[in-house]
Amino acid sequence: MKCPGQDTQYWNADAIFETQCPECGHPMEFFKDDATRRCPGCRKKIVNPKMDFGCAAYCQFAEQCLGTLPEEFVAQREDLLKDRVAVEMKRYFGRDFKRIGHASKVARYAEQLGKQEKANLAVVLCAAYLHDIGIKNAEEKYNSSAAKYQEIEGPPVAKALLEKLGAKPPLIEEVCDIVGHHHSPRENDTLNFKVLYDADMLVNMGECEKKNGVDPESFSKKIDRLYLTPSGRALAKEVLIRAEE
Question: CA–CA separation, 129 vs 69, rounded Å?
Fold first, then answer.
């Protein structure tokens, strides 16, 4: 049986579409699972602007099901994983919209900072969505959401979730390491950790009322002391100080 995500009988009307070659403007037809096609006009190889592999974007058995996947798709696959992680995070927290909202805000800042710092966005965004995933077990086991309990309980949950989605072992190991000390920076931490740390700090400080009434100069020095990346410090001053002026 062919995977329903790739079987053309289940495709909708948008699965086959026309576009124009970005090089010469010649009309081109693409199927949603074409990685590339050669333009009939200029013969240049053009990447599908709407490439969609459906379930193959996250299924660990995609290659066994579909055969060798296009190089262009494989290169994007880890990046696509973040969307599945976001869905699983929301499913795990259920109706805890406070935690879901916090993780989503951290992910938005982490993506912005990650691009500026040229970090690994697959690691950074998976860690952003999962950094507080241990809080549910921490509250159930210890009746506390303290950072140390989150860092104990988070990695096993994150690992199980990422393994379920077929993430590669090196990515799982790095994300779980970040989740396991995301409130506790260490010497020689990775750039990916620093980006996640700054994004989380930015959201937490934005929600903290203690910042109100602190003069901008003192607050700026505090930001320089606490944040770990140049982009984090710049964005924190823009969001936390200039927005208040």
Answer: 27
Distance CA 144, CA 141 (A): 8
Residues 105-115: b if buried by 16+ CB within 10 A, e if exposed: bbbebbbbbbe
- pTM of the complete model: 0.71
How many other β-carbons are positioned within 10 Å of the β-carbon of residue 32? 18
Rg, C-alpha atoms of the chain: 22
Q: Are 240 and 221 in contact (CB under 8 A)?
A: no
Backbone phi and psi for residue 81, each to the nearest 5 degrees, phi listed first: -60, -30
Structural contact between residues 18 and 27, judged by C-beta atoms closer than 8 angstroms: yes
What is each CA distance from 151 to 25, 185, 197, in whole angstroms? 53, 12, 13
Q: How many CB atoms lie within 10 A of CB 16?
A: 13
Task: Using alpha carbons, select from 106, 112, 146 the residue that is nearest to residue 126.
Answer: 106
pLDDT tens track for 64-90: 655 566 666 665 666 678 888 998 999
Measured CA to CA, the distance from residue 81 to residue 89 in angstroms comes to 12
Supply the pLDDT for residue 123. Answer: 94
Beta-carbon count within 10 A of 104 CB: 16
HSE at residue 44, side-chain half, CA atoms within 13 A, is 12
Q: 78, 168 in Cβ contact below 8 A?
A: yes
Angle at 168 between CA 58 and CA 59, to 5 degrees: 20
Contact assessment for residue 193 and residue 227, using Cβ atoms and an 8 Å cutoff: no
3-state secondary structure of 38: strand
Q: What is the pLDDT of residue 211?
A: 63
- Residue 74 near residue 122 (C-beta atoms within 8 A): no
